[in-house]
Amino acid sequence: MSNHKDSFSLADLTSALKDEDRAGLMNALKNKLAGHSSDVLENLTPQMRARVDALKDIQVLLAIDQPVTCLNSTQSQHDELEAKFREERAVLEAKYEKLYQPLYAKRYEIVNGTTEIELTPEDTKMDEGDDKTAEEKGVPSFWLTALQNNEVTSEEVTEHDEEALEYLKDIKWCKTEEPKGFKLEFLFDSNPFFKNNVLTKSYHVIDEDEPLIEKAIGTEIDWYPGKCLTQRIVKKKPKKGSTNTKPVTKMEDCESFFNFFNPPEVPDEDEDIDEDRAEELQNTMELDYDIGSTIRNKIIPHAVSWFTAEAMEGQEFDIDDDEDDDDIEEDEDDDDEMEEDSKTKKKKGGRSQIVGVGQQGERPPDCKQQ
């Protein structure tokens, strides 16, 4: 998404997507978004609020025209109908993929300050004399805040990751055919931590409708000397009785969001691993896939609602509130150990089978939101 010079009009796109109830639905969605105020919005300057409101308008269009691609396998008993459905779905997805691009491009421009939003006369008066507003471009910390407000991705972002993620300009995803799966792209501005401008994460699957994970591949990050966020320097005292009295210094792996780009390797099918190792790998891969799916299905299409924290309320789009309530009730009856285990399982919501490792787990139908 390096070129954003093409002209763009939300009105033109709206008229192109004919729907008799579009106007009413747009107003209903916009009113719903506006009805959930947050501390984030209240603390923004008028200029910044105008930018966020413009991002909401874009997100409303994305929500209206999102193709429905969920299909419960029990709904189709005939292979011929199933094949026809997949064929038509692929055509529909390709159509909407093209229609979404101007919306994502417009969001990119607003977030990164290459396009400005005009203020109303009232907001302009409030904004006069605010030197801070004149200096700030776009919406600072947009993607960092969105990631921190989602319960799955927030677990991965540590305090020492925050400065690096301030340079995150955009997150995109695309479907891949050879091999089948999807790829995430994280676009970064020049920063003091690593040389890469784009970090990618690809998931290869055998079956897209009931994902069978073959493997995940991430970018090798080219860190600047002393700036690696996935390792830390540890000094340890020499062992008692050792002739060396100086502390021993070594590098040690540590928690970081950027570990996401170094996924665990799936062993070859003929490689012999014990049951405990297989279960551990299965759980790790399930969690990794859940993070990737969350970024693809929730963070990217609804980024502004995660930024404003409105998505945390579960008001804008369906969140399994009933399931969450059941989990809470179970936690209250369990001891601390069971409670921690429940939280871990809750985080691994996007389960799928990994080829050659473990057993098939339950996974909700995979809805594509491009």
From TrEMBL:
Location in or out of the cell = Cytoplasm; Nucleus
Record carries keyword Cytoplasm: yes
Q: Which domain of life is it from?
A: Eukaryota
Q: Which GO terms describe its cellular component?
A: cytoplasm; nucleus
Which InterPro entries did the record assign? NAP-like_sf (IPR037231), NAP_family (IPR002164)
- Single GO molecular function: histone binding
Share an example GO biological-process annotation for this protein: double-strand break repair via homologous recombination
Span list, region Disordered: 316-370
Question: What ranges does the record list as Acidic residues composition bias?
Answer: 316-340
Q: Keywords assigned by UniProt? A: Chaperone, Cytoplasm, Nucleus
Report the family membership: Belongs to the nucleosome assembly protein (NAP) family.
Protein name, please?
Nucleosome assembly protein
What species is given as this protein's source? Brassica oleracea var. oleracea
